[in-house]
Amino acid sequence: MTETTTTGDDLAALAAETASQLAAATDLRAWDAVRVGTLGKSGRLTALLKGLGAVPPEQRKERGAALNQLKARLEGEIESRRLALEKAALDARLAAERLDVTLPPRPHPPAGAEAGGIHPISRTFEELMALFGAQGFKVAEGPDIESDWLNFSALNIPDHHPARQDHDTFYLPAGPDGRRPVLRTHTSPVQARTMLSQEPPIRVIVPGRTWRADHDATHSPMFHQVEGLVIDRGITLGHLKGCLIDFLRAFFGISNLPVRFRASYFPFTEPSMEVDIGWNRKTGQLGAGGDWLEILGSGMVHPKVLANCGIDPREWQGFAFGMGIERITMLKHGMPDLRPFYESDMRWLRHWASDPLSPPSLAEGV
Amino acid sequence: MKFTLSWLKAHLETEASLDEILTVLNRIGLEVEGVEDRGAALAAFRIAKVVEATQHPNADRLRALKVDPGDGNLLSVVCGAPNARAGMKGVVALPGAFIPGTGITLKKGEIRGMASEAMMLSAREMGLGEDHSGIVDLPADAPLGESYVRWAGLDDPVIEISVTPNRGDALSVQGVARDLAAAGLGRLKPLERPAITPAYPSPLRWEIADERACDYVLGRAIRGVRNGPSPKWLQDLLVAIGQRPINALVDVTNLYTYGLGRPLHVFDVAKVKGSTLTMRMAREGESLAALNGKSYALTPEDGIIADETGPEALGGIIGGAPTGCDETTTEVFIECALFDPVRIALSGRRHDIRTDARARFERGVDPALPRLGLELATWTIMELCGGEPSEVVAAGEEPRWQRSATLRFERLAGLGGADVPADEAVGILERLGFTVQARDAARVTVAVPSWRNDIAGAGALDQHPSLSPERARAAAEGCAEVEPEADLVEEVLRIRGLDQVPPVSLPVAGIVPPPALTPKQSRAVLARRVLAARGMLDCVSFGFMEAKVAARFGETPAVLRLENPIAADLDQMRPTPVASLLLAASRNAARGWPDVALSELGAAYRDPTPEGQLAVAAGVRAGHTPRHWAEPSRPFDAMDAKGDVLAVLAALGVPMAALQVTADAPGFYHPGRSGVVRQGPKTVLATFGEIHPQVRGALDLSGPAVGFEVFLDAIPEPKRRKRGAPDLPAFQPLRRDFAFLVDATVPSEAVLRAARGADKALVTDVALFDCYAGDKLPEGKVSLAIQVTLQPREATLTDAEIETVAAKIVAAVGKATGAVLR
């Protein structure tokens, strides 16, 4: 019969012994021997547990608790040693699987591979660049994470403005200045970036990612817009209309596409207008039927926006517009559903992708 | 904003048809959201009389009715309504009629053995409310046989428009009517001020204790009122626009909120403690039990209306339940106030309370309207509830809202692109309520009407701090000068119709414009095409992902974690697009498509600064190459990813000979099968490799997977150097093969580089064509076979010269790598 003590010296000894055995076990086989020798059927801890019945009843409770505590501790130590050994084994295996990465790669992609392709959104971006490029626009870009000054304040949307609420803005933790950066809710902050970084005349489009906290069948929390900004002398609302009509008819390939302009309001333009194109609501056919479809917002750049960015509105004026890339892409190609745009389902991608070797060209028509 | 056609016509004298009205609303910026003609669905229902009501012989709960639909032919109707009784009038549906509340078309039938030829309707069955406790019980004087819809005033179309944030004045039927009149659709009917004679001193006084809480407030009590349900016309009006009638006193406030855009609040005088209502800021710890049944913990930033016991209303947003009016109210106190729009907007947002009052106050309520609004409301309450009015009590002063603005007529063309005759422009402004103060041939100066706080308003600039003081000042002065004018140009063009502005194509500097893209932007487009041409599918994926997943791909600093993610698994800005593409590969595998090649041009986020958002061309190949007769299927490996990287870099004009590959790729790659492509020791152009098995495992990707990222921002602008004359030597090149035995740890690149450098004049190319490790070689050694191209320039090489070069190559490779010729 095992000598038992109430001080638990034998338990401490077992703990110490097991720890040193575990440390000495440098592979899984040795580790398993320690495990069986401790927790197995005839392991040392198991033996102590079995001996509990022989302990005098007045000490049994205390002894039992101590044994259970020790068991939990040893189980934990044994398990963490197993994880460490497995990780070491994996690291060793991976190290042994070394490949000379300086080797020259294969000279071509694998034979028989399916053709790749350009995502419809990327395709539309390229078409926009071609069509607005023909009207003398350059492409400007900006980051996804913006200051709230660029996203809102510069654009005449102060803190309390009701429009801020409509934007469903994503916020990041406040920076050192105490202001919370935002995921840009539109591509319009690049208007301000451009006006601050270059002198007029300005003629840019801004294709890019935009973000709003809205997720359902017709809204995605990340989507795409293209912004247009023209600042020059003598640019009028008539030019805005001409520019958009020229673009829309070329983009949709319908030379007599009906385009309607309605008065509206945006904090960053004045006068502001919404633009509709003619279509048939039932068949989805563009350019035919008596219905109107809202497609973009636009207007003459608000004098406050110019002044916020240091441009004297007595000297310079111009227009801005913004439209949703997904919307015009879906309309152009008759794509029914927004959600698959971001799911990277290869079946959908293959169906809608376009040939990388046929970029949009004015010569061929976009 | 909803209103009925007849309500509109109460303010607008017009002959225009509904369609004309809708067209003009759209044109002038009051976008029509919808038109609801509730009467259309109920057109077939008639007012009928129950002539006889007896117990159904076979059912305790049913009654057998004889109903006269108006033509004297009695119909037999089986009805379960407990209120069905002889002599009552109700609404009958005949067979063939569609019942909106149940969605079925009525047929003749038999109920418990008794014929039923028609149906008596409840309100719910007609889709006019929730009441299904019995059939509709019409007053005795309802005309028998008449269309129910016409009699009930439901043949009045309801128009819903969306009002832009600048147009508080258009959140009223009167404001809409004014715009339509300005656009030529009729005449705005003026409001008449009723004559009210005060009969007693007001039991309540106003005190503005804090000007932040309120600018100006009027009030008046009416005693001896009998409150109860509103008359039918008012209830119908409110129901039509989606409001719930409450009681006459409250309904009157809603009538003026919608009709004039003049929100009002009514207190029950008996429930107010003390004799003073105080406008002040809330104190920490105060709360309001609001009329919507909720309780709000107020902050010192909220403006409130308080009595002796504490807050009784969140001024301009919502009233309090304890002092609200109900059927027991006999003395009412009407509040008619002006509040700071910004404070209302912020308080409303803070407590997420959306009320009609807030929508109007945060846009701005006509500052000249309180007096007239109060008189009209008093008059209507007395009409509906009786009683006698007290004197008017006030606090604060009507704000000074008077402003003027000047329009130079040439700006209509200069900014608006439209040739508008001066008289037409002035006429439009006058019809909108502007009054001419001065006019000459070149310009007109007008006084801005009180209700148009959006014209020549006070909104402050927020100029960028980097602007020089002179530049900022000039721009600010310019803005102050032209902004009111732009407001007026907008008004004229808006009312006239923007379709009247002739479109003009943008002038371009030349027929062939300069490139739209910078070289850097072109590179991004090219990178995408190169990858697609190599069989990859271009993807667009969300830039945020689950933080736990993102952490397997790099740093996930808290500054890149969204404060308000739309879903728990979309909360962290991704460290690399490779992560998104691997998730996509995993989803494709789960759908039965384990072999994919996906690429994306997107951002990798390091920190929130613009520089911390890297433009990356990333790709993932997962699974195996296709089965094909020409080439057996094999798992994708790190060399495929390296091939993609080098293809992109070469296409983007990176000098390939100078690139180095090091083995210190990020932790999401297999540590022994991944590399970093560098240009010089510091510039990292790309990473590539097999994905670490643990990362794959965590993403449920069981097959092999490789990935890469090319950092487009790091790629230097290619030097636009003119090409010199091509090197076209007259002598044939010679090719010699060498096989070296070298330690397996030696990078093959070292062997190639040494061979290339052995004789720079003669050696023009070195290619590795075999790489072997196996049983025939000593442990830890590999055999590398290279082909060296020698290009003589002066004369054909002699055998001795060739031997000399070969010896140089062997020596150079041996010295650099310890290799020996096999």
**Secondary structure tally: strands of chain B:** 41
Report mean pLDDT of chain A, rounded to a whole number: 90
Question: In CATH terms, what is the architecture of the largest domain in chain B?
Answer: 2-Layer Sandwich
| Overall domain count of chain A | 2
Question: What is the element string of chain A, with H for helices and E for strands?
Answer: HHHHHEEHHEHEEHEEEHEHH
What share of residues are in beta strands of chain A?
A: 15-25%
What is the helical fraction of chain B, as a range of percent? Answer: 25-40%
Average predicted confidence as pLDDT of chain B: 93
Structural class of chain B: alpha+beta
- Strand residue percentage of chain B: 25-35%
The protein's oligomeric status is heterodimer
Placed side by side, the strands forming the largest sheet of chain B appear as 29-32-33-37-36-35-34
Principal-axes shape call of chain A: elongated
What does this protein look like?
Chain A: GO terms for molecular function: ATP binding; magnesium ion binding; phenylalanine-tRNA ligase activity; tRNA binding. Chain A: Its cofactor is Mg(2+). Chain A: Residues 121-340 form the Aminoacyl-transfer RNA synthetases class-II family profile domain. The complex is a heterodimer of chains A (366) and B (822). Chain A is elongated and about 100 Å long. Chain A is built from twelve helices and nine strands. The relative contact order of chain A is 0.11. Chain A has two domains: 3-96, no CATH class; 120-352, Bira Bifunctional Protein, Domain 2 (BirA Bifunctional Protein, domain 2), CATH 3.30.930. Chain A is of the alpha+beta class. In chain A, the strands form two sheets. Chain A has a seven-stranded mixed β-sheet, sandwiched between helices. In chain A, strands 2-3 form a two-stranded antiparallel sheet. By secondary structure, chain B is an alpha+beta fold. Chain B folds into six domains: 2-37 and 157-188, Phenylalanyl-tRNA Synthetase, Chain B, domain 1; 40-152, OB fold (Dihydrolipoamide Acetyltransferase, E2P) (Beta Barrel); 205-396, 3-Layer(bba) Sandwich (Phenylalanyl-tRNA Synthetase, Chain B, domain 3); 403-498, Phenylalanyl-tRNA Synthetase, Chain B, domain 1, CATH 3.30.56; 519-714, Bira Bifunctional Protein, Domain 2 (BirA Bifunctional Protein, domain 2, 2-Layer Sandwich), CATH 3.30.930; 734-821, Alpha-Beta Plaits (2-Layer Sandwich). Helix content of chain B is 27%, strand content 26%. Chain B has 20 helices and 41 strands. In chain B, the strands form twelve sheets. A seven-stranded mixed β-sheet of chain B has the order 29-32-33-37-36-35-34. In chain B, helix 7 (248-260) runs antiparallel to helix 10 and helix 12 crosses helix 13 (469-496). The mean pLDDT of chain B is 93. At the A-B interface, helix 4, helix 5, strand 1, helix 7 and strand 4 of A face helix 8, helix 13, helix 14, strand 29 and helix 16 of B.
